[in-house]
Structure formats: structure tokens, C-alpha cells
Amino acid sequence: MILCGFAIIVGFLTTRQIEIQFNDSVRRTAQYLAERADVRYSDDGFSASCGKLGDLSSGEGAKVAVYDLTNRQQMCVFGSSLERALVPHEGSYPRDEGGYRVEARQVQIHPIGTGILLYARPLSATKATAAKVRVFLALGVLGGTALALAAGLLVARRAMAPVQELTATAREIARTRDPSRHLPMPEADDEVAELARTLDGMLEALDAAQSETEAMLERQREFVADASHELRTPLTSVLANLELLEETLEGDERDAAASALRSSRRMRRLVADLLLLARADAGRVVPHHPTDLAQILFDVAAELEPLAARDGHELSVDVGPPGAAAVVSGARDELHRLALNLIENALRHTPPGTHVHAALGADDEGHVVLTVQDDGPGIPPELRARLFERFVRGAGDGGGKGGGSGLGLSIVRAVAVSHGGDVAVDDAPGGGARFTVRLPALPMPQHAPVA
């Protein structure tokens, strides 16, 4: 737009200057011819002599004519005698007529009086020059635009290179969530460099805040783990005393002791759950030994069989063909808790008459696969995304089946992850929910005696 505006202004001024110079040239030439014209009649009054007027006016396609105003007749014509531009007209001069610029001057005609000299020069030369100027300006605009575009792209690319580096580094920091990385500093000391320094300072502050937060969380994890561990001893003492009181007391006192004993047992289980999660958060690893999941699954089924029978559930266990390996390296108590929570969760959240099936198998990647599925109503879609979070409770929690703390499935995931495996949930083939735990299998020739 700037180049177009510049070209328009330059074109207008240049064209006008060409016209002014052309008009001045025509005017000066006409004046020059009028001053040097020697126009006279012969003695007989019929023939006219214009002296050297033809020689003086030749060139540039110009035309000259002299008219006798007294006799109203044409005396001398050089160039053409039929051009309308060389015919006197009423009105003012100079004027444009028939493609010519015409100037008129009064001359003396000897011996009879005065006449008029008309000098005309074609406008085509001026128009051609103006057209060339416009073409040159148009080419200049196009060339200048192309050069400006190329230069602008080059400058913009060099100017945006530091910004692109900052953007790439910021994306990498966002991907890795590592605020300890530093941003590249541009060489030029400009606004981009100031922005880079500001962002780098912000990252340093975030890194320091993250380190402080992680240290605080680590202290909290250690505290919870230590506190949960320390609570086990007094709880064991309380349970022992309450069991003794329940056996020795009678009547209402015995019922009160039994109620306190049930609450204490529930508290002991909750403390055990918190201790397991706290150990996982703090990174405290319980010693692992070769452990047979089939034996653990049988023990859990035997432990939960009375609960299943009481609520009208059908519980079945399939550990595979005899001699099938289901040995993993792990902590027996934690793996027992994993299987117990899965089966108990299925019993608690399904209506009476539901079939709960637990099975052991293996996959092609060297994993022992524990599957617990039911044919109940399944898991609501809005709950499935948060199912393994802590303190998330399903519809059966808090109901007539005793409720739960909302830590069961989070413990399942923590145990699976700490043993190098994972846990997933999907829909069972016949309806209901299916939980699948995959744990790395321990090769039979390499493991020690199985616990």
C-alpha cells in the first residue's frame, strides 16, 4: 500500500511536470517563431512570403500556419493545410485541438496589417512519455513489493527464530513437566531476550516451589507411614483387651464390648490399608519372595465364603490345570490383600444371587493374570474413570453390607504397581464388571521355595 501510494503521487507529479514542460516548450517555440517571422505580400498582393518560418518550425511533428485577419485567408502553412488544429477559432489560446497543443501569436504582415500565427505540436509524444512513466512505476511497485516481501520474510524468520526456540523449549517443559530446564537466551538484548529472562526466572521459582512441595509431601508420606505403623501396636493391645472383656462380661456390658471390638477391628483394617498406601507413596518396598497366587486365591475364597453364603452369592475359583505355574515375586500379605479386596468388592457391590468368579491364567508376555468378574449390574460410566482413586465409593458402600472406606481398589492398584504389574477394568462378556490384574511371572527354575 505504501509503494502504491508512493507510485500514484510520483506518477501524478511526474506526468504533470512533463505536461508543464511540454506546454512551456510549445509556448516558447510559438513566441520564438512570432518574433522571427517575416510575412509579407508581394507587390501584386497575391503571393505571400513567410521567410524562413518553415525552417524554424520544422521537427517534432510540429505544424505552423499564418492567417491574414484582414483578408480572412490562409497565407503560409507548413506541415498540413487541412488540419483542424491550424484553423483559427474563437476563444482563448493555448488549447488542445485534434490531438495537438496549439499556441496562437499575433504577427505583422507587410504591408497590409496584422495576422495570426498558429503553432501546433502533437500531444502523442507527451502521452507516450507519461505512459512509460506509469509502466516503470508499476514495474517498480511490483519489484519493490517482491523485494520487500523477500526481505520481510528473511527479517521475520531471523526475528522469530528465538521465539520458535522458546516455544519448542516451553512445549518440551510442558511435556516432561520439568521446570528445572532453562530456556535458550537470544544473543540480541531486545524484548524477546527480556521475555526469555522473565520466563526463565519464573521456571526457577516454579522449580523451587515444586521442590518444596515435593519435600513437604515426602515428609507427610513418611509421617503417615510412621504413624500408621505406630498405631498397629496400641490397636493390637486394645483388640486383645476387648476380646478378653467380651468373654468375661455378661448382658449389656458384653454387647457394648462386642460393639467396641467390631469398631476396633474395622479401625485396624483401615490403619492397615493406610499403612500399605503410605508405604507405596513413600517408596518403602516390602521384601519380595516367590509367592504362589493360586494358594493365595484359595485362602481368600475360604475367608470370604461365609460372607458370600450369607449374602446369597455364588463364589467360584479357577486356578487352571494342575501344575500350572502361577508364581510371582512379591509380598504375600500385600498380594493377599489385593485378591481379597477384588473379590470382596465384587460381593459388596452386586445384588444377592450374583455369581462371582475368580480365575488365574497366563498371557503370551510372561505375566500371571488374575481375573475377578461378576454378572451383576456393572460399573456406571461416570464412576469408571475414578474407580481406582482413593476414597471413591460405589453404590454399595455405606449400605447394608457394611460399607467400605473407599480404599480397596486404590490398594489393588498400589499393590499391582509395586509388584511391576497393572490393573484394568472392563465389562464382563455376560454383563457385569471384570477386573484384570497382570503381574510378572517368576520362571520356575529360578525361584526359591514358594511361600
Automatic annotation (TrEMBL):
<dbReference type="InterPro" id="IPR003661">
    <property type="entry name" value="HisK_dim/P_dom"/>
</dbReference>
<dbReference type="InterPro" id="IPR005467">
    <property type="entry name" value="His_kinase_dom"/>
</dbReference>
<feature type="domain" description="Histidine kinase">
    <location>
        <begin position="226"/>
        <end position="443"/>
    </location>
</feature>
<dbReference type="InterPro" id="IPR050428">
    <property type="entry name" value="TCS_sensor_his_kinase"/>
</dbReference>
<dbReference type="Pfam" id="PF00672">
    <property type="entry name" value="HAMP"/>
</dbReference>
<dbReference type="GO" id="GO:0005886">
    <property type="term" value="C:plasma membrane"/>
</dbReference>
<dbReference type="Pfam" id="PF00512">
    <property type="entry name" value="HisKA"/>
</dbReference>
<dbReference type="GO" id="GO:0000155">
    <property type="term" value="F:phosphorelay sensor kinase activity"/>
</dbReference>
<dbReference type="InterPro" id="IPR003594">
    <property type="entry name" value="HATPase_dom"/>
</dbReference>
<keyword id="KW-0472">Membrane</keyword>
<keyword id="KW-1133">Transmembrane helix</keyword>
<feature type="domain" description="HAMP">
    <location>
        <begin position="157"/>
        <end position="211"/>
    </location>
</feature>
<dbReference type="InterPro" id="IPR003660">
    <property type="entry name" value="HAMP_dom"/>
</dbReference>
<keyword id="KW-0597">Phosphoprotein</keyword>
<dbReference type="Pfam" id="PF02518">
    <property type="entry name" value="HATPase_c"/>
</dbReference>
<keyword id="KW-0812">Transmembrane</keyword>
<keyword id="KW-0175">Coiled coil</keyword>
<feature type="transmembrane region" description="Helical">
    <location>
        <begin position="135"/>
        <end position="156"/>
    </location>
</feature>
<keyword id="KW-0902">Two-component regulatory system</keyword>
<keyword id="KW-0418">Kinase</keyword>
<dbReference type="InterPro" id="IPR036097">
    <property type="entry name" value="HisK_dim/P_sf"/>
</dbReference>
<keyword id="KW-0808">Transferase</keyword>
<feature type="coiled-coil region">
    <location>
        <begin position="192"/>
        <end position="255"/>
    </location>
</feature>
<dbReference type="InterPro" id="IPR036890">
    <property type="entry name" value="HATPase_C_sf"/>
</dbReference>
<protein>
    <recommendedName>
        <fullName>histidine kinase</fullName>
        <ecNumber>2.7.13.3</ecNumber>
    </recommendedName>
</protein>
<dbReference type="InterPro" id="IPR004358">
    <property type="entry name" value="Sig_transdc_His_kin-like_C"/>
</dbReference>
